[in-house]
Amino acid sequence: MALVHDAISTRGGTNVYAIPVAQPGSQLSIWLEDLPADYDLHLVDENGDIVDRSTEDGSLPEILEQLDLAPGTYFILVKSYAVLGFDPERNYSLYVELVAPSSPVAEEIAELPTEAPLPTATPLPTATPTPSATPTPNIPTVTISFSLDPSTGWPSGTVRDQTGQVRTFGTGNTTTVNVRFGDRIVFDAVPDRFSLLFDCGPSNPSVQPCNFNASSKGELPELRVTNRDPIGGFITISGPNHYGATRPDNPSRYVTDPLTTLFINPNPR
Predict the structure, then answer these.
(1) Which of 53, 107, 143, 198 could form a disulfide with 42 if both were Cys (CB 3.0 to 4.6 A apart)?
(2) What 3-state class would DSSP assign to 86?
(3) Is the distance from CB of 6 to CB of 119 less than 8 angstroms?
(4) How confident is the model at residue 198 (pLDDT cuts 50, 70, 90)?
(5) Helices (H) and strands (E) in the chain, counts
(6) What is the location of CATH 2.60.40 in the chain?
């Protein structure tokens, strides 16, 4: 069994761990405990499809059991939500046991790419040493940079895509940003204060976190495309204190003119 102590470092962030399964019929057990906030636990396959999920309320433990996995690479997602809080100073405990039909020994757990490598997994007192978590480099990254005109407050900026190509956007325009499963989306804000909404509606979007407001640099999370569904959302940006009515389906608020809009289009057909 592997034991990992880790923390979510950004508001609405998701930590992702890779589990390679070599033999058919392998059994996978996952426990997520000692939660500092309402985190959820998802298991997805290498195609980005959700295999199982646990969504208990509050800080109750999340548990998943899969008794007959096909060979392939699976991903464990520890998910937080912008509106439900997080604590970067408190670790959760993630226990993972993968048992092949022919062997009682758990296989290895490794981390998907993140900016900070996962701490080395700690062995249980009784058993086989736990392999170290190893980061995988080169996450495809989309960077959204924006600024505000000092005289008018109108927003404008650039989008740098996964290949390094840069496009500009301005006030009154809607710009489509194509992303795919596994990509991350980061913000590079020039102003200290602004008004931003990422609106995904009531559906289960592919990009997480979503349905949040951000008014300063420290409130901007890193976004991840966590599955292959084509369900995206709209980012609207304006000057400071340009918020309007509260949205009907969650506590975030609409952004008012002058604004610019970015359509985050995941897994385009």
Answers:
(1) 53
(2) coil
(3) yes
(4) very high
(5) 0, 23
(6) 141-266
Cα gap 168→114, rounded to integer Å? 27
**Cβ(262)–Cβ(223) below 8 Å:** no
Tokens of 248: 């009907």
Please tell me whether the peptide bond between 155 and the residue prior to it is cis, using omega within 30 degrees of 0.
no
Q: Specify the amino acid at residue 24.
A: P
State how far the Cα of 172 lies from the Cα of 179, in Å rounded to an integer: 22
The mean pLDDT value for 243-247 works out to 88
CATH class name, domain 141-266: mainly beta
Pairing of strands 122-123, 2-6: antiparallel
What is the average pLDDT value for the chain, to the nearest integer?
A: 81
What is the predicted pLDDT for the residue at 56?
A: 85
Closest to 119 in 3D by CA, of 129, 108, 134: 134
> Where in the chain is CATH 2.60.120.380?
2-123
C-beta neighbour count of 63 within 10 angstroms: 14
CATH classification for the domain delimited by 2-123, as one of 2.60.120.260, 3.30.260.10, 2.60.120.380, 3.30.470.10: 2.60.120.380
The pTM of this model reads 0.54
Estimate to the nearest angstrom the gap between the alpha carbon of 106 and the chain centroid: 27
| Cα gap 91→166, rounded to integer Å | 37
Chain mean position to CA 213 = 16
Which residue did the predictor score with more confidence, 39 or 132? 39
